[in-house]
Automatic annotation (TrEMBL):
Entry cofactors: L-ascorbate
GO-annotated molecular function: 2-oxoglutarate-dependent dioxygenase activity; metal ion binding
Taxonomic lineage from the root: Eukaryota, Viridiplantae, Streptophyta, Embryophyta, Tracheophyta
Catalyzed reaction equations: salicylate + NADH + O2 + H(+) = 2,3-dihydroxybenzoate + NAD(+) + H2O
GO biological process: coumarin biosynthetic process; defense response to oomycetes; response to molecule of fungal origin
Protein name per Swiss-Prot or TrEMBL: Fe2OG dioxygenase domain-containing protein
Lineage: superkingdom: Eukaryota
Keywords, sorted A to Z: Dioxygenase, Iron, Metal-binding, Oxidoreductase
Family: Belongs to the iron/ascorbate-dependent oxidoreductase family.
Residue stretches spanning the membrane: none
One Pfam family recorded for the sequence: DIOX_N
Domain Fe2OG dioxygenase per the UniProt entry, residue ranges: 187-287
Length: 336
């Protein structure tokens, strides 16, 4: 029972299987807010300025926020609304979609990788493959009835935003704008709709423990009402306050590798709270399985030898899911 969904179930105390050892707790009262998170205005007419700001943010932080990104407020409101409706369904209804098999292209699950982990995380999540839409939308939930329509429109717009950002990131590395996109191939797109119920003892557990994202680029939409995302900066965990109209953009492991370690795939985690459920929608752009991840020539050589060996994304992804989330950075296993 402890490996099944937690949303819609009443808990008066935290079950033992979620309690972290004392040395590995979020220390919520000590966390400061990150008040100079780069916010990049993608509507700015000065393209060179955008590219420079993105390069600075990727080098210094591995993440940034974007505004004026072209995804309408109505669509953002709609996806948050339909996601809340989904998690408000009865446990019986949600359990029809439950699976703990990470190879499934559509599943509702809980925690992170329940078969591998020793301590669970206070999260349920709906994981969807989203590209190409016509292949995957038919298997998505049909309850709530607007789910497929709203989520597929959102996915298409987020994909355009992600590809545009990859062009800017490519330019910021001094590469041709299509360079990274060409290496990444016909990219897959996955979504995790994360739901973190109010937690009876938030000091003792995580929604998601510290991890980096195994893909290329992540676009995160945070519930405006409830904070929970934290990133590691200079050895300190800092809270990212949700900002109206913004997406949080994370550099994933593959962009760290392709940039030859110049850009950082940032460690981040989600914490929970006692009062309110929190929701986030993470969209992941993933290299195609056969993409050969090898830093471009312009970024290696001389004083900058290749930090990582060449590998295919398929090899990396299998390795990532065969491990527990809060182990060492998976990229460490691919170092030269
Ligand atoms: O909920 C969040 O803020 C973080 C989500 C996340 O890191 C993930 O889905 O990989």
């Amino acid at each position: 029972m402890e490996t099944k969904v937690i949303s819609g179930v009443h808990f008066s105390s935290l079950p033992a299987s979620y309690i972290r050892p004392e040395s590995d707790r979020p220390k919520l009262s000590e966390i400061e807010e990150f008040d100079n998170v780069p916010v990049i205005d993608l509507g700015c007419e000065d393209h060179n300025l955008i590219v420079k700001q993105i390069g600075d943010a990727c080098r210094e932080y591995g993440f940034f926020q974007v505004i004026n990104h072209g995804v309408s407020k109505a669509l953002v409101d709609n996806i948050l609304c339909v996601a809340h409706e989904f998690f408000d369904l009865s446990v019986e209804e949600k359990m029809k979609l439950y699976s703990d098999d990470p190879t499934k292209t559509m599943r509702l699950s809980t925690s992170f990788n329940v078969k591998k982990e020793t301590v669970h995380n206070w999260r349920d999540y709906l994981r969807l493959h989203c590209y190409p839409l016509e292949k995957y939308v038919p298997e998505w939930p049909s309850n709530p009835s607007s789910f497929k329509d709203v989520v597929s429109t959102y996915c298409a717009e987020i994909r355009q935003l992600g590809l545009r950002l990859q062009e800017d990131i490519s330019e910021s590395l001094g590469l041709d704008k299509d360079n990274l996109k060409n290496v990444l191939g016909d990219q897959g797109q996955h979504m995790a709709v994360n739901y973190y119920p109010a937690c009876p003892e938030p000091e003792l557990t995580y929604g998601l423990p510290a991890h980096t994202d195994p893909n290329a680029l992540t676009i995160l939409l945070q519930d405006l009402q409830v904070a929970g995302l934290q990133v590691l900066k200079d050895g300190k965990w800092l809270a990212i306050k949700p900002q109206p109209g913004a997406f949080v953009i994370n550099i994933g492991d593959q962009l760290q590798a392709l940039s030859n370690g110049k850009y950082k795939s940032v460690w981040h985690r989600a914490v929970v709270n006692a009062d309110k459920a929190r929701l986030s929608v993470a969209s992941f752009l993933c290299p195609c399985d056969s993409a050969n991840i090898s830093a471009p020539k312009g970024l290696t050589g001389g004083e900058d030898p290749a930090v990582y060996r060449d590998y295919t994304y398929n090899e990396y992804y299998k390795k990532f899911w065969s491990r527990n989330l809060d182990q060492e950075h998976c990229l460490e296993l691919f170092k030269n």
